[in-house]
Amino acid sequence: MKKTALPLLTLSLLTLASGAALANYPEKPVNIVVPFSAGGPTDKVARDLAEALRKPLGATIVIENVGGAGGTLGATKVAKAAPDGYTLLLHHIGMATSPALYRNMQYKTLDDFEYLGLINEVPMTLIAKPSMPANSYAELAKWLDANKGKVNLGNAGLGSASHLCGLLYQSTIKIDMTTVPYKGTGPAMTDLLGGQIDLMCDQTTNTTSQIEGGKVKAYAVTSSKRLTAPALAKLPTLDEMGLKGFSVNIWHGVYAPKGTPKPVLEKLAAALKVALADADFHKRQEALGAVIVTDNRVNGAEHKKFVESEINKWGPIIKAAGQYAD
């Protein structure tokens, strides 16, 4: 009996210590990994959320940008991180499209993460270089038809939001364009402003300021309804312009490594819901054309079901385009 008492006591103390650590979570800064470069649209969402999340979670929030390979490097880092609640992932629609784009991913989207909730949905805008002669979507459609085989469509890289929107747009209007991938949204926007590329379909979080400043020509939004942000309110939807059913929303969600303790997940989920109700967060996001999620997808289980449905939606479109990364 004496030989077993010490191990049993040690085990009990460890259990108590572990329980206390969970009860006191968080006791140090929480890292949110953004799998893209600083200054991009997903980074903007993350930094706005971090500010809203800091108070209800009771911790300092640190944004860590881990770009590369269409977001898969950052996602891999979180999938392999310690499941203790101190390393989270904020990712966009790439969570659902990467399985079709990348053949050698080091994680499984539906198996290697705990799903915490969907944050927002960000529509896209169809924009063009400032020297584009078309001044309306109807004129743009005629210009595209007259310039088949000559149009350059930029994007922020394989698997980016602008890449996905461009794929769907081309397949819908049945006009092939020369796709020009860049290493990020910034370089793509720079070349669009300079007239090196003709068109781009990108998130409102990245295009609103350019549209507001009159630096690009804007033709339509990809949401099902017109947007209310002042710089975007006059833009029609592509559905209105005859592309019935056309809808692309680049959503963002939050994830933890698989195996994160349930009490930690519950604290994170509760803090996330408070953050999503924050008035300042709403104001900042709505100014960029983003819509805060308020339906049941803010819950982990429904968030996961939604991502699975998006995998099923985008997989066939990507495979039909034959654009893969090894």
From TrEMBL:
<dbReference type="Pfam" id="PF03401">
    <property type="entry name" value="TctC"/>
</dbReference>
<protein>
    <recommendedName>
        <fullName>Tripartite tricarboxylate transporter substrate binding protein BugD</fullName>
    </recommendedName>
</protein>
<dbReference type="InterPro" id="IPR042100">
    <property type="entry name" value="Bug_dom1"/>
</dbReference>
<feature type="signal peptide">
    <location>
        <begin position="1"/>
        <end position="23"/>
    </location>
</feature>
<comment type="similarity">
    <text>Belongs to the UPF0065 (bug) family.</text>
</comment>
<keyword id="KW-0732">Signal</keyword>
<dbReference type="InterPro" id="IPR005064">
    <property type="entry name" value="BUG"/>
</dbReference>
